[in-house]
Amino acid sequence: xxxxxxxxxxxxxxxxxxxxxxxxxxxxxxxxxxxxxxxxxxxxxxxxxxxxxxxxxxxxxxxxxxxxxxxxxxxxxxxxxxxxxxxxxxxxxxxxxxxxxxxxxxxxxxxxxxxxxxxxxxxxxxxxxxxxxxxxxxxxxxxxxxxxxxxxxxxxxxxxxxxxxxxxxxxxxxxxxxxxxxxxxxxxxxxxxxxxxxxxxxxxxxxxxxxxxxxxxxxxxxxxxxxxxxxxxxxxxxxxxxxxxxxxxxxxxxxxxxxxxxxxxxxxxxxxxxxxxxxxxxxxxxxxxxxxxxxxxxxxxxxxxxxxxxxxxxxxxxxxxxxxxxxxxxxxxxxxxxxxxxxxxxxxxxxxxxxxxxxxxxxxxxxxxxxxxxxxxxxxxxxxxxxxxxxxxxxxxxxxxxxxxxxxxxxxxxxx
Length: 416
Ligand code: ASP
Description:
Blueprint: H1 10-31, H2 35-71, H3 75-106, H4 129-135, H5 141-147, H6 150-167, H7 172-193, H8 196-211, H9 220-244, H10 250-267, H11 270-284, H12 288-301, H13 304-320, H14 327-343, H15 350-362, H16 369-373, H17 376-401, H18 407-415
Helix pairs in contact: 1-8, 1-10, 2-6, 2-7, 2-8, 2-11, 2-12, 3-9, 3-12, 3-13, 3-14, 3-17, 8-10, 9-13, 9-17, 10-11, 10-17, 11-12, 11-17, 12-17, 13-14, 13-15, 13-17, 14-15
């Protein structure tokens, strides 16, 4: 993974071609009313690829974070880098909700829609903040690993990583073994990623074929608002923070982030995109220590697109019921959506499930979520793209502040 591959920029073009070709085929199948063909014959190839990716996620996150945490050296650096990372995550997430609320207001989302009577949706039972925090520490880390409980896996990995640096010489063999294990995971991923352009093609067709353009109808404004908020957040917050805090060209940033962004758009999963964000960050010149610390963490807890989406949806639901939100309620939405997005898993659809908690916190009815469900996937694609772009922006900024950013490397990658 450390060496640049000869076809470095090609993968972006290939994925883009796969994506566009898939969208075209999807539209054609949709117009012909043949969505079933896509589901029966094309979807399994996408599922095969997703299974391959899922196979490596837990071991990858674990090994990569252990190496990240012990690579950072002492607890002090882990604390310092962790603090910077969390600060960036929290501030940008809150900004995303604010951007979402502004756009939602400007576009008047939810106006002119009436709730169908058969709408039904069950919100997850809200979990208290104390329980949420307590749950982060796994009482049985092996259970956490087998069940893929990412927050717990992260917590355990950080303890092991810091433990390795404290123990020192005696843990050297274990550290080398873990390093080797991480490398093996990277090499498996390298192989899987070569299939990405075809996977993107196979994954996008069933989505477009079954959703079509018609479903958009009355929900068009909602979907448009989410896309606009996401685009604005990337164009303003990421560009500026990468430029000002990371002293890194935003154009170069988005160029190198493109393969990961397209993959996130197609799969709607931050977790599945992790191998791609790691690769893009490597090309940006972010050191292995910083990227293997920031990115797995970000894929799990940093969800700006999801937060913006939840803010917009809260406005949408209020409008559908003719409820006027007070300033106090707006502030509650900002806090609730920021926290809910942290608790959102990096898998498709998770943000809509957590939306139930945001609505409950603000005191809004939940039934309207059922209407949102129809266009949920389309919005998930946009928000996931932004979620993982935020992780990569954070990696650059943290790396820069720690002197762990090799700009010449990024220059060569873009130039080549
Ligand atoms: N699908 C999103 C992600 O993986 C989470 C969400 O549903 O908003 O980042």
